[in-house]
Amino acid sequence: MDLPTQVPVMTLPSATLFPQALLPLYIFEPRYRKMLADALQTHRMFTVAMQDPTRVREKPCLIAGLGLIRVSVDHADGTSHLILQGLTRVELVDTVQTKPYRVETIRALQTPVVDSVVIDALVAKVLELVKQRMEVGPAPFPFPALEPTAGGGKKKGKAKTSGVASKEILEYLEKLPGPDQMADLVSCAVLSSPVARQTILATVPLEERLKHLIHFLIAEIEHYSKGGKQ
Questions:
Q1: Domains in the chain: boundaries
Q2: E strand or H helix at 19, and its extent?
Q3: E strands present in 75-140
Q4: Would the pTM of this model clear 0.90, i.e. be above it?
Q5: pLDDT-above-70 percentage for the chain
Q6: Which residues contact 148 (CB under 8 A, 6 or more apart)?
Q7: pLDDT per residue as tens digits for the range 101-126
């Protein structure tokens, strides 16, 4: 798929769009209504970037997710519900415009192909930690083995109540095309911290990304093991 060199940017407080992930969005601000209308008439793509937590005024993080509008439903009041599918990580290179909505020049970021015993060991550790995480905290979503709630949030309850679900999730992760996709899916579905998810999104080298993910999973396991809430 040919990617545009310039795309609209939606800046959200705690959102991250990973490659291959599906992100449901409700469009209600006038500027984003205009952005959506323009995108639907052209390449059907825009970027979702997390608000830079170090800035008070609206400022997107420089590493974001480029998405393709798969479904868009308009409502009588001018708002819309849509499903955005992540395509790739991108770097926001240069601001083209800020009104009526932000447009940035982008550069696609591809993960270098790596095949080593170190990666294999890190992947095995991630899968081990995912199993532990499902035993102590709320069930992750979205995974094929779990049913989503009507609101599209995370399913409540603990995965340990369903041994079959845990087994199916791990089997699904093991069958993914590569560790790159596995790391992103686990980060998207399991990590509760927006800052943690953004750290993973912004880390392109696979070995470093897996190490970050292991660190965050261990922190989540400790949090829920001590009775912490989501």
A1: 6-109, 117-225
A2: none
A3: 80-97, 103-109
A4: no
A5: 88
A6: 141, 142, 155
A7: 999 999 999 998 877 999 999 999 99
Domain 117-225: CATH class, spelled out: mainly alpha
Backbone angles phi, psi at 180, to 5 degrees: -60, -50
β-strand pairing of 6-12 with 103-109? antiparallel
Furthest-apart CA pair in the chain: how many Å?
56
Identify whether the C-beta of residue 194 lies closer than 8 Å to the C-beta of residue 102. no
- Residue 89 has a CB neighbour count (10 Å cut-off) of 23
The CATH homologous superfamily to which domain 6-109 belongs is: LON domain-like (2.30.130.40)
What dihedral angle (degrees, nearest 10) is formed by the CA atoms of 76, 78, 83, 84? 160
From the number of C-beta atoms within 10 Å of its C-beta (0-12, 13-18, 19+), residue 174 rates as exposed
In the predicted model, what is the mean pLDDT of the chain?
87
